[in-house]
User: Fold this.
Amino acid sequence: MEPVFRAIGCYLLLLIVVRLSGKRGLAQITIFDLILLLLISQTVGQALIGDDSSLTTAAVITVTLVVINRASDTAAHRWADISHVLEDAPLVLIENGHVLDERLTHMKIRLDDVLETARLEEGVERLDQIKHAILERSGAISIIPKDDDDR
Assistant:
């Protein structure tokens, strides 16, 4: 039963750490984020296994983590209050060509990254061509260009 409790504890700890670290999609991670991820996975892996590295313990831990993950997903889809705790709401970063600097700073996103996404996804070259830039729940940035009527 100890491996189950270790798995639950590690899952909850990582959930808290990831929520506190902010949204960032996998495509946006830096080399520093990758190094941190590798170090955390090594540390947590050792904590999960403990002194028992048997196949049975690995199977119990794996099943426990999958069950916790599925339960979290189900709870987030079923109850809005839990969804807000587990996942952030989309956040507008640029509105009608106006940069919301405090949001970029708070989310640790550079304007250059938003503009790069605008160029790559929508062919938008200037800030005044962006109606909305939205940081999605997944950490991806969506760009909604201005219509010809909006310009």
Observations:
- The mean pLDDT is 84.
- The helical segments are 2-21, 31-49, 55-78, 80-86, 101-107, 111-122.
- The two ends are 63 Å apart (CA to CA).
